[in-house]
Recover the amino acids of this structure.
């Protein structure tokens, strides 16, 4: 038993740090650190840099262009990227649909789609959630009926993250309306340019356009775009959800946010002294940092178990809950640290192309918006209530 | 001990509630928010015609002379409707400061216009580093011929962009105490940057570069305004608690409705026991908050005392905690839909959380209360 | 709207204070303040003093020897008694069975039992809970069958508080085993000296003997000891529960405990300074005091509503939850305030007749025991989970 | 990064687990608790025969030379069984102090006997006013001919009533630093009052009235013992976290069983969603605690550093919070039965809560961590 990283892992960390120092653009890191919104081009810029290094598809097998890293290496990479302020990887293509294609796709699908994801040519989004479904994913209503060598898709998806940037969407659709809930569902790859698709923005309470509704009106999808078997799409969905949940604790992001929280508390003053010297506020930071330490150790334990051949089971539900709560607690403190300075809603200061002088400080515009935005963490990817149901059922057998 | 409203008070509450219901649908509010004023001058006009703007102002100045209880009733309804007008900051906070600090001439020249809703006032007491403490300010009044020149910057002056006059706190050069000056935002040397707050209302930052104020523009004795600021922040905080109450009631109502109608896994989600218990917890917090809103309203106009300060801090603390809890849980129980701009609940939640960023948040008032903790004379 | 007490109420408060100053024995008040255990004779002593003053049966109608006080007066009386350190009234007789007898009893029952309660001749205990029932009170199994002019009772009751002191017990028994759950239950008054009754102590985790099991083995109870109608005992039970729940917030007791907590925090030292000067601990006290203020205001609101003709509804469930949580929070802080000094388990120092020198301080023996004992507050009288079910059902209609 | 036990470690864990299961049923524990020793000398004897008492002691002194990980394994199992023997205080804390502070002669004369389980030691470092801080003490060592005389009182010396020697902390008259002296509890001037702690183990208070100690009875340099006390309290605290873990696992298991078997309203109470979610919360806290127990075990023997201090304080904090939460919820979910002396759960709960009263509770370690908070070099 040893909690320290091996010399090889430490060397790897240094390699990642060196890469980030030379390749992560300062302006990008600054935007991320300050919580500004990122443009499509920001994401693409970073994606290209990683691709050139061969470090974009960290979860893929080597033969398809992956890194072949161990889970520990992936964790180190994630952590260092977050610490350096690298943009978060938009995972719908590289980390969500790609594993499904690799696992269930035809050789033709692999040959066509995987290189386009690696090169950044395709931007994928996810067509899972529907207006009526919420956490009850399997109750989806979007249907597809076979018409010759096409499926004809009708229905609506929602909460489609960054769908406004995407040229492709992977969808769960109902192909057998008579079957039971989780049966009769198929997994389709759809070109967003196909006639009949409409994308409508959903503006969230922080004024951000991050999610969308996607409408399908007699959208014709070639049958070769079916992944796996017809009516067996739930298998793909479950496989993907397992992939999604791992790493949801977001340790690296929370650590970076905590660092920024400390910086803000050092800069803001209360009764003429830096806020960080206020014993109560300082203790609140200490408390969240201690809990984060515990969640990080738990993540490492699960990673090690995965490396040793285990499958991340319901523990990932615990980590999802704890990771989201900690991240929310940090943004809560960040907002509070600003006092009255958290009130102004200066959307232009959050825009990707803002380069003027801030009304107050460069760090002050984002925290209140972020606090509200981060409410999503306990809702999406299976709400924290659903995670507790899973724990009760799968782990505790209640 | 009497928790009933008298007939006049009940009528006041009903009137404002009806006005808000009629004039302040969520769609209309969106329009007001996006308008150049950032609120509805027509609604303000109606408030003035029905005498609501005069409620907090003393009867000697053509006001209604309402107490904390009347302020509570008005603010609860404005809170329920998420109203954007700077009623609290102009009619209660600023007018209260003028009434407490101003000379009889100042009061006579300002308050009737305020009561009539003709002029609005604003208070510029926060600064980048003040963090809810009206005494931690850097703004300076430099004595000059027959007056002062103001230098410094003020942050988040709620309603400042539509105010006729602004009450600015500053320290007179080489002295310690806080003074309050009346300035015209159009005056030379005033630069104002206006913006909406994240919870809706409009505010501005002020840069003051040698703004000339006459002797007559000083409110009260030089350097002696801090107690009045603290006292009036207590009154305003109490009224703000009432605003939070109306808001919480509405957020709670929307959530309860949602739990009864939203179907998932084949049943209304309100059938799930864990959500039922969450609602019970929210209801509990709401009741505690309501109790403290009433307490705060009843003691807001009491003379200064440690007891009043403790009660008002306790009210702000309990209400801030309840507000954040209810805001967060209301969103959580709604799921994604609770986070969308086009649904009113999201705006209720934003306001509930951000109310703590005025007049001191829960941490600030916990520290205040802690400092004033009443200890037994005898050790164990 | 006015939160202040009327001059009459204030005068009443002074009258109560004066009475307590002259009549509450110092040694009794000291025991209560220090959290020591009370002997039967301690309870009886205080009961007699109150009876002589005519202030024992505060909830009874005047014609039976009650005070005729308003709800506000009762609240003031409770609060002042708690503040002065008066022993808590053991309510099974005077405040539980008596109201039932007054409401549902025969003239003979009233004539016989009420004076004996007033005089202290009878000590009642409660036979409600059963081993298998817990919060599901109506699932009780103790049965009584009619045999001539007697009921013959068989079964077992549990959690019978202070049953070891009692000479009478009121019981819910099943008289119609065929009927539905809440039907077929009767309310019986039983003499504890009747052959076939055995009382067995239950020692709780703090080492205290406060509750008991009571076994009934062919216990013959005269039919005239039935209260109300046969098989309609649930009506009495519900009536009694409503009475029980009011005042469960225990504001007065929490205020007295908070006062004692402050005294301990002033006496104990941390790094050479009184603990009360530690900003974090002081803030914890402040926080619980602010919440207590809110619960007190809520109690007053409900009292006023009752006075104005309302019936305490599900609000009393909210108060029960909040009142118990606050009391538990206070005893938690009291335990923590003692640091290592909370560890010694000095039972003899808690005994009613202890008058030696304490090993450390007179206040230090009880807090840890009390902290554990107070866990009961969220369990008994309808667990806090049950209270939330009630709120969800009755208030929220979910 | 490796969370697996090696074969030897697994064997150690299995051995202790089996011993505890066989010798420490709850009924037997009640007997030990009520016996004159307050624990089981036979069990101690067995621990010694199987070499368990030697695990924490250095290999140079006939010990096994176990690390924090071995201590963790032993303490987890002793915690699961609610064992009453002063293993932690004698074999880990006191022996660790002797090993760190003692001269080679002192170590050679004491540690082999300790490793063999022949002699037990205890540490008297808390005083009425020390509140977890080994430097806030009043006990005085007054220099005298060829030694010192100790004056003062010591509180809650766990295992002190059955110890061969006690390590007593004191300040040498007119100096500031802390020294540690070895005393024989039978020596003249020592008055000992023995009692059980509310969570089971036996402890005593000591009154020291001119207790003579020779020069040879001082451990380490005069006035220089504080760092060793703090370091060893860190090691002991880490081991105590492991004890809490074993305890929590058992309390959790008992509660889960209860939820599956206890029927109410016609179903096992574990079917109620609110209780399911509570159990999920408990499980989450348990996992976080487990992670911190492992972390603490792995860094307990690291050289002194702020990082080690932070990690050990974080472990004590997280474990104390988790322990109290699980204790309180386990009782709540059991209802009344969870509060009875005759059911083991109640004793698990008591121990879980009271563990925080040794080596610093959550508040103490929150303050410690806060003081050592690692800040970025750059302000925002």
């Amino acid at each position: 038993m040893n909690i320290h990283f091996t010399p090889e892992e430490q060397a790897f960390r240094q390699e990642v740090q060196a890469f980030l120092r030379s390749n992560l653009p300062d302006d990008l890191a600054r935007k991320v650190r300050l919580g500004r919104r990122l443009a499509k081009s920001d994401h693409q810029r970073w994606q290209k840099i990683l691709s050139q290094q061969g470090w974009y598809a960290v979860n893929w097998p080597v033969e398809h262009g992956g890194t072949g890293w161990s889970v520990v290496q992936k964790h180190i990479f994630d952590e260092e990227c977050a610490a350096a302020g690298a943009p978060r990887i938009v995972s719908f293509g590289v980390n969500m649909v790609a594993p499904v294609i690799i696992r269930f796709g035809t050789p033709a699908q692999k040959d066509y789609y995987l290189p386009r994801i690696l090169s950044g040519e395709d931007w994928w989004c996810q067509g899972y959630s529907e207006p009526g479904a919420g956490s009850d994913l399997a109750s989806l209503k979007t249907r597809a009926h076979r018409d010759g060598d096409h499926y004809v898709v009708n229905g609506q998806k929602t909460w489609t993250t960054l769908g406004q940037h995407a040229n492709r969407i992977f969808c769960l659709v109902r192909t057998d309306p008579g079957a039971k809930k989780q049966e009769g569902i198929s997994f389709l790859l759809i070109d967003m340019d196909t006639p009949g698709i409409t994308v409508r923005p959903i503006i969230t309470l922080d004024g951000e356009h991050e999610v969308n509704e996607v409408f399908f009106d007699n959208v014709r999808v070639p049958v070769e775009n079916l992944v796996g078997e017809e009516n067996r799409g739930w298998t793909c969905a479950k496989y993907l959800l397992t992939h999604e949940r791992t790493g949801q604790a977001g340790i690296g992001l929370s650590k970076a946010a905590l660092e920024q929280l400390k910086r803000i508390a050092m800069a803001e003053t209360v009764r003429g002294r830096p806020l960080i010297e206020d014993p109560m506020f300082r203790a609140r930071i200490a408390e969240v940092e201690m809990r984060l330490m515990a969640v990080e150790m738990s993540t490492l334990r699960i990673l090690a178990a995965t490396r040793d051949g285990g499958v991340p089971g319901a523990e990932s539900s615990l980590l999802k809950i704890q990771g989201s709560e900690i991240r929310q607690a940090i943004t809560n403190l960040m907002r509070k640290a600003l006092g009255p300075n958290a009130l102004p809603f200066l959307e232009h200061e959050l825009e990707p192309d803002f380069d003027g002088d801030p009304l107050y400080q460069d760090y002050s515009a984002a925290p209140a918006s972020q606090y509200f935005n981060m409410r999503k963490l306990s809702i999406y990817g299976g709400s924290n209530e659903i995670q507790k149901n899973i724990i009760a059922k799968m782990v505790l057998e209640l | 001990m009497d928790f009933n409203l008298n007939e006049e008070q009940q009528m006041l509450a009903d009137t404002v509630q009806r006005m808000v219901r009629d004039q302040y649908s969520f769609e209309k509010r969106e329009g007001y928010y996006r308008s150049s004023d950032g609120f509805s001058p027509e609604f303000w006009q109606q408030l003035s015609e029905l005498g609501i703007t005069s409620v907090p102002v003393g009867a000697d100045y053509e006001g209604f002379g309402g107490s904390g209880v009347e302020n509570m009733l008005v603010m609860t309804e404005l809170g329920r409707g998420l109203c954007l007008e700077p009623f609290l900051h102009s009619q209660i906070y600023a007018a209260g400061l003028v009434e407490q600090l101003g000379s009889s001439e100042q009061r006579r020249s300002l308050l009737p216009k305020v009561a009539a809703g003709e002029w609005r006032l604003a208070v510029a007491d926060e600064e980048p580093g003040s963090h809810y403490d009206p005494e931690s300010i850097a703004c300076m009044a430099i004595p000059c011929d027959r007056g002062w020149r103001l230098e410094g910057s003020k942050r988040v002056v709620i309603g400042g962009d539509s105010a006729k006059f602004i009450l600015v706190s500053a320290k007179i050069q080489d002295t310690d105490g806080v003074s309050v000056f009346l300035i015209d935002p159009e005056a030379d040397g005033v630069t104002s940057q206006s913006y909406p707050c994240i919870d809706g209302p409009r505010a501005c930052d002020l840069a003051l570069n040698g703004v000339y104020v006459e002797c007559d523009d000083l409110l009260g004795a030089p350097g002696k305004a801090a107690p009045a600021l603290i006292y009036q922040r207590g009154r305003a905080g109490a009224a703000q608690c009432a605003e939070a109450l109306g808001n919480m009631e509405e957020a709670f109502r929307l959530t309860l409705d949602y739990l009864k109608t939203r179907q998932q896994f084949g049943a209304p989600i309100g059938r799930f026991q864990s959500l039922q218990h969450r609602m019970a917890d929210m209801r509990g917090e709401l009741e505690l908050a309501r109790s403290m809103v009433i307490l705060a309203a009843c003691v807001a106009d009491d003379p200064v005392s440690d007891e009043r300060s403790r009660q008002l801090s306790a009210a702000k603390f309990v209400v801030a905690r309840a507000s954040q809890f209810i805001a967060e849980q209301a969103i959580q129980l709604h799921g994604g839909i609770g986070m969308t701009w086009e649904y009113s609940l999201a705006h209720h939640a934003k306001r509930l959380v951000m109310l703590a960023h005025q007049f001191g948040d829960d941490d600030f008032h916990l520290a205040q209360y802690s400092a004033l903790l009443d200890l037994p004379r005898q050790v164990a």
Summary: Chain C has a mean pLDDT of 93. The longest helix of chain C spans residues 279-307. The domain at 7-89 of chain C is CATH 1.10.540.10 (Butyryl-Coa Dehydrogenase, subunit A; domain 1).
